[in-house]
Design a protein that fits this description.
Length: 597
């Protein structure tokens, strides 16, 4: 009995001792003294000294000291094991090596790169904690109280070797050649570390090559983009390059920021907006301004929160730069209202000439495409930006690009006008201020829209049809004959999508919200639209969407004119019996009951 009691007492004592050592290993006290000798670091001509932020410097950081304490604790617990003594001795040797290297890194005379150092320290701490836990299990009285797998010691020994290799890689005097074990499963991580370090400390040529490589990685995978954001601490190194680099590296840095910002919105802040504005205002090369315009178009949903930076004004001015001189002079004469406006317009023209002297035709087209694309994206569902666009010279630019711009600029201009007029349709104040037929810019836009619709072959046909529909309430009765005639001709088009959009646009001319609906309905009938609509409603080859749109338009016209033609009334009565036509349109409320019975 006494023997069992003695064994129990010794077991309790061993358990308490084990818990005491565990608490010691995990202690977070900062009063650890470092007395080991540290060999001097090697000199190097290329070290990572960061100027932007102290967070990139890791010397003396708490997590660095924490790893050293854990290494010392691992050495201490390996001193008196009761079992697996040879294996614990090997762990002790490697833990001593880890502690020595950590102290050497702690007192290194060059700054260590923060991100890999942080990752290495976290990995090393994890390995040391596992080693301490394993050795503590070997300090029990008998092995019957411990369950240790045979592979535990080789695994821990291998992990400690990896930690030693990782720390040696950190201490490679700023050169960071090769792939450390911590990045063995993800070699590109090591490449990203090196490239970002070069952005901070390399020469102008090295930084240009590094940002080009990072741009290539950012294009390849969202995983790489995430790594670049995490390891670079956001877009700060790229912003510095945007403001200080060569033109090529500036453009690449802008594209990297854009690709990163699309998936990680938090990196786009006031600093990014300020850098973009600085380039749009002052960049000596207009092609770089085009790259920033592309960036604004890609980040439009995010930059809406930074309207105070006046991106719309700057982009409108950028598009204006690409107009021919005769169009600039015409616009200036048409829009000047006072002498201050004259001086402002003259100074702008001077700046434009100086800038465009440095560009060729391809660059000019690139600017047109990117500026119109950015204005289009900024106008989407944003009444304030739409108003700013209409108050600038952008409407005249859109009209010119619809006629003579590159293919993509024509499409972007049409889509921008679609968004602006859609907002104007819902906002009476914007419609009255911006879309008056006595304004030269508005006249030019309507003229170009009619030219596109008359040709009926442009890829921008549907946007132009939508624009006229959105502007239906801005036209006078005497001014709509031509545009309604042009739209009615499209009712005979082959493309179902075109026919449907034409019906929707014409319905806005004759709906109950339009005060001139009677005049517009008569213009549709005079242009032969009545018979075309009857044919569309009864046409078995047309899609259900086209037939419903045509029926809605026919109901409006018949109701406005109190039509009593037999063919129209017969068609309407027939349509009432077709479930596929009336399930979305309450025809009974559109026509007087006496016309249907």
């Amino acid at each position: 009995m006494s023997r069992n009691y003695d064994n129990w007492e010794r077991l309790v004592a061993a358990t308490l001792d084990r818990q005491k050592l565990r608490d010691l290993a995990l202690a977070s006290s900062a009063d650890t003294s470092f007395t080991s000798s540290v060999p001097p670091c090697f000199d190097s001509s290329f070290t990572f000294k960061f100027r932007s932020s102290s967070r990139n410097h890791v010397s003396g950081m708490p997590y660095f000291r924490s790893a050293i304490r854990l290494a010392d604790d691992a050495v201490r617990v390996c001193e008196n094991p009761t079992s697996f003594k040879p294996q614990c001795s090997q762990i002790k040797i490697k833990a001593l090596k880890v502690a020595q290297l950590l102290r050497q890194a702690m007192l290194a005379d060059h700054e260590l790169y923060d991100r890999p150092a942080r990752r290495v320290m976290e990995s090393t701490e994890t390995v040391l904690k596992r080693a301490i836990s394993l050795v503590l299990r070997c300090r029990g009285l008998k092995r019957v109280f411990t369950a240790i797998a045979p592979s535990s010691f080789p695994n821990i020994s291998s992990l400690l070797e990896h930690s030693i290799a990782n720390i040696r890689w950190l201490l490679s005097d700023g050169q960071y050649h090769g792939v450390p074990p911590i990045a063995a499963d993800e070699p590109v991580l090591c490449d990203i570390w090196v490239l970002i370090a070069i952005l901070h400390t390399g020469s102008a040529e090295d930084r240009s090559n590094a940002v080009a490589s990072l741009l290539s990685l950012a294009h390849q995978s969202d995983v790489y983009r995430k790594l670049i954001v995490e390891e670079g601490g956001g877009v700060e190194p790229f912003l510095r390059l945007v403001l200080e680099g060569t033109p090529k590296s500036q453009a690449n840095a802008v594209m990297v920021i854009t690709l990163l910002g699309k998936e990680h919105r938090w990196v786009i802040d006031d600093m990014v907006s300020t850098a973009f504005v600085s380039i749009l205002r002052e960049a000596p090369l207009i092609k770089l301004q085009g790259t920033v315009a592309w960036a604004v178009s890609e980040l439009a949903e995010i930059l809406v929160d930074y309207e105070r930076y006046n991106f719309v004004h700057l982009l409108s001015h950028l598009a204006f730069k690409t107009l021919p001189e005769d169009r600039k002079v015409y616009l200036a004469r048409a829009t000047r209202s006072d002498s201050s406006g004259d001086e402002r317009g003259a100074s702008m023209s001077c700046n434009c000439d100086q800038t465009l002297e440095m560009s060729d035709l391809a660059t000019d087209d690139y600017i047109k495409v990117m500026a119109t694309r950015a204005l289009w994206r900024l106008a989407i569902a944003n009444m304030w930006n739409c108003r700013i666009i209409t108050e600038s010279k952008a409407l005249t630019c859109f009209a010119f690009f619809l006629e003579k711009g590159p293919k993509e600029a024509r499409y972007n201009s049409a889509m921008a006008l679609t968004e602006i007029t859609a907002e104007a349709e819902q906002n009476t104040e914007l419609r009255r201020l911006a879309f008056k037929l006595n304004l030269p810019a508005y006249k030019a836009v309507v003229y170009q829209l009619l030219k596109v619709i008359d040709h009926a072959e442009s890829a921008n046909l549907i946007p132009c049809v939508k624009i006229l529909g959105n502007l239906a309430r801005t036209f006078k009765a005497t001014e709509t004959a031509r545009m309604i005639t042009s739209l009615v001709k499209l009712l005979d088009a082959k493309e179902a999508t075109v026919v449907k959009e034409v019906c929707v646009a014409l319905a806005k001319f004759v709906c109950s919200d339009n005060k001139l609906r009677w005049y517009h309905s008569k213009a549709i009938v005079d242009a032969g639209g009545e018979n075309l609509l009857v044919r569309l409603v009864r046409g078995g080859t047309q899609t259900a969407a086209v037939r419903r749109s045509a029926l809605t338009l026919l109901c409006h016209v018949a109701s406005n004119l109190m039509c009593d033609e037999a063919v129209v009334l017969t068609t309407l009565r027939w349509a009432l019996k077709q479930a596929s036509l009336v399930q979305f349109d309450d025809v009974d409320r559109r026509l007087p009951g006496m016309m249907l019975h």
